[in-house]
Amino acid sequence: MSSLELRGVGVRYGRFTAVEGVDLVVPDGSVTGLVGGSGSGKSTVGKAVVGLAPLTAGRILVDGADQPRRPGRTAVQLVFQNPYASLDPRLSIGAAVAEALPKARRAERAAEVARLLGLVGIDPARAVQLPEALSGGQRQRVALARALAARPGVLIADEVTSALDVSVQGAVLNLLRRLQRDLGFALLFISHDLAVVRYLCDQIAVLESGRLVECGPTAEVMARPAHETTRTLLSCIPALPARTAPEAT
Amino acid sequence: MAATTVRGVVSAEPPESFARRLRQSLRTPIGAAALAAALLLAALAVAGPVVFGDQASKIDTSAMNQGVSGAHLLGTDSLGRDIAARVIVATRLTLRLGLSATAIGLVGGLLLGLAPSVLGRRAGRAVTGVVGVLVAFPGLLFVLFLATIFGIGSTGAVLAIGLALVPTLARLIQNLATSVAGSDYVATARILGVGRFRIVVRHVLPNIVEPVVLFAAQAATGSLIAFAGLSFLGLGVQSPDYDWGRLLNEGLSRIYVNPASALAPGVAVVLAGLVFALLGEAVAQTGGRRTAARAVPAARTPVAMNADGGLAQTPADVDGDALAQLTHLRVSFPGGRTAVRDVSLSVAAGEAVGLVGESGSGKSLTALALAHLVPYPGHVQGVVRFDGHDLLADPRSGRRLGAELAMVFQDPMTSLNPALRVGRQLAEVSEVHLGQSRKAALARAVDRLAAVGIPDPERRARQRPHEYSGGMRQRAFIGMGLMAEPRLIIADEPTTALDVTVQKQVLELLGRVRADSGAALLLISHDLGVVAEVCDRVLVMYAGRVVEELPVSRLFQGAAHPYTRALIGAIPTMTTDLDRELATIPGRPPEPGEEISGCAFATRCAFARDRCRGELPVLAPAAGGAGHRVACWYPRAGDGGTVTDDTDTDDTDTGITRAESEAVA
């Protein structure tokens, strides 16, 4: 569908440099994990791609064409971290999804909203409900359905599971992975959880103080981290005492 | 499983439209009173001039300046006109003027207030600047200024008062709109290419309507009084028209002769103002969505908490050595929401206990109950003992907690006071609880900051929290807990808000502090990995009850409760099989208000049988060994748990997969 390319991307707020000189390619139909500690600028990169953060240097290309500097309808969609803040509390979830749909007749819209809600595992009959009637995981599914409604070529998922319980996290990640494989969009998955990134991503990019310090295929980076930051991130995963791995059976 | 979810939520919470909520809030005492009074006022305004018009304008030279009498309830004026009738007739004009002025103010305020959201950045900034200047202008001066420009008379007064309302309303709306405009959902709408105007109409306005309505109601009251004032000064309504202000003006000259003639229009102004305020309140209540009498299913949760079985099987009851002990703790909130249903736990001196559960499991409230900090209107039942003292029975013993119990909260951004220097905040603890002098306390604070690994503690003690990084703030807060000699540290999700790299440091610090001070630790977390790293013993909570208690050494291999096992299975690790879907737990946990018969986990459990759904399992020793107890009728067997663990996660996983692939198809 689409590929995303960042060339020398920099973001500055006044005198504060949030991101500097980031070169990254998210190839068509693949998943790139963007990891880093808090304040490393990983969310800012995502925001810059959709025009929510001011691009002060470099270019952002989608399928070779420059992304507009201001937010507007493009081939890129972003799903925010906190599903409690990213859905309008006064808008029914059906209306929220419908807002993202391309212009069409009312009947078609209703059918499309139902299809999308079904796609993310929400009963279409709940389209009339307000977000407050939904749990965090369900809200995040709705946010995902809304992003998909815009038929993105590139999807940016900014810490989409870190506000969720671990039991819910799995379901959202499974869904995201399945949708990515079925629909074939390029996915930039921003996270601090390397275990999750390892599960989901084809390649990993590591940010540190706004700079890209390591980038490569997931398995390789995990096995032979080249940069100190990557090694620190890897060592900081709380070690779960060995338990029987599923493949043991 | 999907059916469970849908049934639970759909039936409990039907979608609530604004109209529906408005109807609900009009049924509350305030709403009903507001509605009745508003209808009465409207009726007076509509029918008053028709019914009493003649009487009010009939000049009767034989009855001039009369006092209160049977024929004239409030007396007559200098032309012998009935004052009571005039007050009633004046309702229409007064309300019309007040409401039109408010309408002018509201429209102007909305236009100016929303303009920055619709216009570009530069034009928006200009509008904001203009409003800022206008707000700085004194209101009364502004009215008088405008009234002079527009000339004397009611039209001029309406324009003057209406326009004078614009700046403040515009500023309020601007501020509200800005906060909404900064929200993630507006950002999403922008990415989706929704136009600015549409964003304002769909997203901004609905989310700011309540405070604006409330303010407009207040403004209406204010403008009633302003009109009375202008008319009283002779700048407002001119003869032969009259509103309450003019009547007040006429009556005041005779207040010593006939007090009623002056008081009546005054009372009318006050009453009408009250009606507006009430109406605003009722509408605002509609907006406060959760307060407006959401039909909570009547609380029929069992009050007696499995008294026989529970009591018999709780060693905590007889544990005399426990430092902190909760017995049959129950925390409930009005409306039948019971967050903690029945929890018994004990922490021995020097022990590290982990309390694990998902959001809504009641783990935080359990910890808060132990620290005597359950927020109002939470109701705590059961026995809470700390160091042998019953905290619930003897409230004064709660004072001991200040020195002997340290609490670490999740968000170090909000747990430190941003206005005070960090050293000062720490020192306060010793001053209050240990009676130390200011200087000694500050020295201790510096010492404690050093103890929690803050570099250059003397300089850092003089800084304010915003100069600290998140991890340092959490360290400082832990240091605050160490100002006295705590015997128990309660840490509620101490690392959730922190970076992974910082998380590790804070956990190490907690471990070191415990080793140094010998304090016990109660660590509340949703993260099993965190708990496993720090604690000796783990309690797993689900739906307000402890479902399993076991030594950490057995957590990952020997857990017996299907929920614990599912929770462990759901954590992605560095060895997770990439070709399979992640394990999940289908369904959702019960709501705090929900009535549960039997095991709360039964609806999500792959191994549930009839007994699970009908009978509540209590904590009983598990087969695994000492210190392992589980509340399950059919606990999963044995060490290793290779096979069962696997089928467990597999089952749940395919459950969700099936439902969703159907949806996809």
UniProtKB/TrEMBL annotation, chain A:
Residues 4-234 form the ABC transporter domain. InterPro entries: AAA+_ATPase (IPR003593), ABC_transp_ATP-bind (IPR050319), ABC_transporter-like_ATP-bd (IPR003439), ABC_transporter-like_CS (IPR017871), P-loop_NTPase (IPR027417). It holds the Pfam family ABC_tran. The keyword Oxidoreductase does not apply. One of its GO terms (molecular function) is ATP binding. The keyword Cytoplasm does not apply. Keywords: ATP-binding, Nucleotide-binding, Transport. Belongs to the ABC transporter superfamily. This is ABC transporter ATP-binding protein.
From TrEMBL, chain B:
PROSITE patterns: ABC_TM1, ABC_TRANSPORTER_1, ABC_TRANSPORTER_2. Residues 91-280 form the ABC transmembrane type-1 domain. Gene3D superfamilies: MetI-like, P-loop containing nucleotide triphosphate hydrolases. Residues 639-665 are annotated as: Disordered. It is a multi-pass membrane protein; Peripheral membrane protein. The chain crosses the membrane at residues 30-52, 97-119, 126-150, 212-235, 255-280. Keywords: ATP-binding, Cell membrane, Membrane, Nucleotide-binding, Transmembrane, Transmembrane helix, Transport. PANTHER family: DIPEPTIDE TRANSPORT ATP-BINDING PROTEIN DPPD, OLIGOPEPTIDE TRANSPORT ATP-BINDING PROTEIN APPD. Belongs to the binding-protein-dependent transport system permease family. This is Dipeptide/oligopeptide/nickel ABC transporter permease/ATP-binding protein. It comes from Catenulispora pinistramenti.
